[in-house]
Amino acid sequence: MNIRILRDIKARRTVAQFEVLRNAYLFVARNQTLPAAVRYRAQLQLNGLSRYTRPSNVKNRCKESGRGRGVMSEFGLCRYQFRLKALNGELPGVRKATW
Amino acid sequence: MASVIRILPSRARMLELEKLRSSIFHTSFNPTSARTGAKYLRARLRGPSMLNYYPSHPSIPRINKLLKHIHDEQEIPGRLIQLDDEAEIRRLQDVEALKARGKGKPKKVKKKGPYKGQSKIKEKGRGRETEIELCSVMSKIYEVSQIRRPFDILQAVKIAFCRRLKTS
């Protein structure tokens, strides 16, 4: 648990909270059948929303260390934490390969 | 051998057929392929599943907060029960030790002249309320959209938004 994870949790909460509103504005802004003035105002509203309301702002970080890169999506762990846990036998079905 | 010449119906006639078909099967009729933004309404909500990514560990501060919340909410007579948070106690001790050595937090300087930092403009009052209202309307629309009548929903949303943008 570190600040980056906390920030990501914040982003996730904000995205969930504003998703419906955001989709509604997107619908109006991208709708070519609506008058241009209306679409423009919807786009302005979208621009005014916090950056944390964007779903692309959310990143799947390592659940253990908060690392943003090298995260295996299947385990939600970065490569080093994965190795540690796997060697400890904490990941069911994962074994060190030998041949 | 007689050859069969098949002539396609005219474009206008085909369009008529499309229109009739869409009215029967409740699909949208969009001959010019204009972008209607319907994909944003059709998309599933991603937020709820996003919330469950990180596992929530019960921590002592969190438990203490919960205990305090229960204590305040239900107005239980008696002492407030709190767990000992060793990390927090140690931290406070460290802060005290630093203070004793004159390495504590610097005192806040009183402001002189106009504040030069960034000023945040926060919208309060009516705008926020209408947004929340709109949110509830949209969530209702989403509920209705489960019944698979996108055409009516699109109309409803269009009307709702035009009205809101006019009034604001």
Automatic annotation (TrEMBL), chain A:
A single BP term in Gene Ontology: translation
SUPFAM superfamilies per UniProt: Glucocorticoid receptor-like (DNA-binding domain)
Cellular component terms (Gene Ontology): mitochondrial small ribosomal subunit
MF GO annotations: structural constituent of ribosome
InterPro entries xref list: Ribosomal_uS14 (IPR001209), Ribosomal_uS14_CS (IPR018271)
Key words of the record: Ribonucleoprotein, Ribosomal protein
Family, similarity comment: Belongs to the universal ribosomal protein uS14 family.
Name of protein: Ribosomal protein S14
Organism in which the protein naturally occurs: Hydnum rufescens UP504
From TrEMBL, chain B:
Cleavable signal peptide: none
Keywords: Mitochondrion, Ribonucleoprotein, Ribosomal protein
InterPro entries for this protein: Ribosomal_mS33
CC terms in the record's Gene Ontology section: mitochondrion; ribonucleoprotein complex; ribosome
Keyword Mitochondrion: yes
Regions of compositional bias (Basic residues) in chain numbering: 101-114
Pfam family, one: MRP-S33
Stretch list, region Disordered: 101-124
Top-level division of the source organism's lineage: Eukaryota
Compartments (UniProt record): Mitochondrion
Keyword field contains Cell inner membrane: no
Family per similarity comment: Belongs to the mitochondrion-specific ribosomal protein mS33 family.
Annotated protein name in UniProt: Small ribosomal subunit protein mS33
Species of the source: Hydnum rufescens UP504
